[in-house]
Amino acid sequence: MRKALYPGSFDPITKGHLDIIVRSHAIVDHLTVAVLENPRKQSAFTVGERLEMLKRCTEKYPGIEVDYFSGLLIEYVKRKGISIVIKGLRAISDFEFEFQMALVNRKLNPDVETLFMMTNSKYSYLSSSIVKEIADFGGDISSLVPPEVHDLIVRKFPRD
Ligand code: ADP
To answer: What span, in angstroms and rounded, lies between the C-alpha atoms of 111 and 75?
Structure first.
């Protein structure tokens, strides 16, 4: 059974993330989408809110599990019996960091493969930070985030 992990901050989930989730789900038997809880990174949404958003967007796909973890990714995949880690790539800027992470993870555990999935060109410009910035200024984010989570995100950035 091919079990894969798609890790990220998902602060919040965007249509770019969901595109990678759906395409990964099509090529593996079981996909875990996990929120990486990083105390050093400031986030707009709590882990609970990010899990709730991921659940809403993935509940119609059988074989997708939503979870969270903190600490070393390689320890988490070992615990879960996962051997594939999926990363999305938008641009060269993503590549440099992800390349280093993939090599470090291979060093720590050679049995785990990192697979890179190219962004859908429709979403190559899209990031969680862009969504937060637009929402904070009261802009329309409906083309950037899945409809299931739109209102939840908008409510986080109240306009007075
Ligand atoms: P962000 O950079 O948006 O804060 P995350 O840490 O939540 O992203 O990203 C999790 C993973 O999803 C990373 O591998 C990242 O490269 C990938 N990703 C994020 N946005 C996109 C997108 N628009 N297209 C493809 N991959 C993406």
So the answer is: 12
